[in-house]
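Protocol step 4 of 6.
Sequence for Peroxisomal membrane protein 11C (Gambusia affinis) entered exactly as in the expression construct, tag removed. Do not edit the line below.
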Amino acid sequence: MQQSVESLVRLLETYRGRDKVIRTFCYGSQLVGGALTRKAAAGADVSSQRLGKSLLLFSAQLSHCRTVLRLFDDLSMLAYSHSYGLGASEEDAGLRWISVLTNVADQLYYPCEHIAWAADAELIKVRSDKWWLFSTVLWGTSLLLGILRSFRVLLLLRKKLKKHQRDGGGSRRSDLYRQIQAEMLSILSSMADLSNAVHWMPPGFLWAGQFPSWLVGLLGTTSSLIGFIQMNTSSSELSD
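Step 5 output, structure tokens:
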């Protein structure tokens, strides 16, 4: 128990770790709140409906908190994009250009979201809806590119795995299996987020606006928990 508490404290001491915790609580609250309000509406349970609405409001506030915190992410993203450049260190050309396009989409996402936030806060006199749309499109584009990148990585890993199965090397095969599992988790996480991104598009686009709150929360919670698994796996590999 004490070790779990210490791990949580260490996680909260980092910006990325704190963001993952806030994200999980945000979507978890939306999942439970949406389920309670739906159940209460069917059974006319006033107390459950009140609790559900409170959790949905709490989720909205946490989402707003994350938006404000992202006001300071531009420079770190720019530093990462600059260090990656055109991906000269990548052996595969497909991975290189997918990563470059992903970095471009991520870099453009932040100013669009900042403008939308500033418009909602009445700091600038523009309509926020089109800027929220731009940011959602860029987020969805980044997620789609991430899925394509993971599929490309899986293809390359399977080729390496076949080669090592012929040549032997058990430890190397185990490492490749772990990488394959990590990429499959990344695909699942990105697909969950991409489903939500489509939901937040204007009505008439695929399933836009058709998800109930609990389903949005479920998809976001799934993605967040996968993020925790990946973070824990990365920490374990670094300690090894």
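Step 6, annotate. Helices lie at 2-12, 15-43, 46-69, 74-84, 93-120, 129-167, 170-199, 213-239.
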